[in-house]
Fold this sequence. Notes:
By secondary structure, the protein is α+β, with helices and mostly antiparallel strands. It has one domain (24-124): Immunoglobulin-like (Sandwich). It is built from one helix and nine strands. A five-stranded mixed beta sheet has the order 2-3-9-8-5, with no helix packed on it. The N and C termini lie far apart (78 Å).
Amino acid sequence: MKTARRIALLASSGLGLALAACQPHYDGLEIRYINGVGEFSADGITIKEGQALAVEVTPLSDNRYEDYEKFDLVELESFNPGILVVSPSTDVDRFVFIGVSTGKTAVDVTINGGDVDTIEATVEAQSAGGR
C-alpha cells in the first residue's frame, strides 16, 4: 500500500511542476500613449519637466503558452517622486507620469506583488520657450 501512495504523490507533484511551468514569464511592457508628451524607448522613459504623460500598459509574457490576464495587477512606482511622479489611474493598467524636476531616476515594475523590472527615467529641462 505504501508504494501506491508514494506513486500517487509523485504523480501529483509532477502535475504541480507542469502547471507552474505554464505561468507567464515577464518579457516587458507594451505601452500605449493616451495623452501627453514623453517618449519610451529601449533606454527608458524621457519626459520634460512640468509635463505629464498618460499611458496604458500591458505586461508581455515570453511564455508562448500563457499570457497575462486582466486580473494580473501591474504596479509602477517611481524610485524618486521628487524627480518623476508615477500616479495610477482609476482605470486598470493606466498611469500618469509627471516630470517634477530635472534628473534621472527609475520606475519599479511590479506584477502581482513581485518585482519584475526597473525602467530608467529621465526628466529633461524645458526648452527656452517653456515647451
